[in-house]
Hints:
mainly alpha; about 85% helix; 3 helices
Amino acid sequence: MAWRVGNQIALRSASFLSGVVLARFLVPGDCGLFSVALALALALAAMTILVSVNDMGVILGIVR
Length: 64
């Protein structure tokens, strides 16, 4: 479980840092495209978290 949590934290940190780097290099006209990509990345992150919770069996425990 600790490895899985550490992996998720590392992936989220890398995603955030790449967003910061892209925001520094993009011109203001490209920000719309970046915001769409960021929204998709956040949706993917939320889905990954929900799948991870489901894999751990927490949802089944809550239902019971």
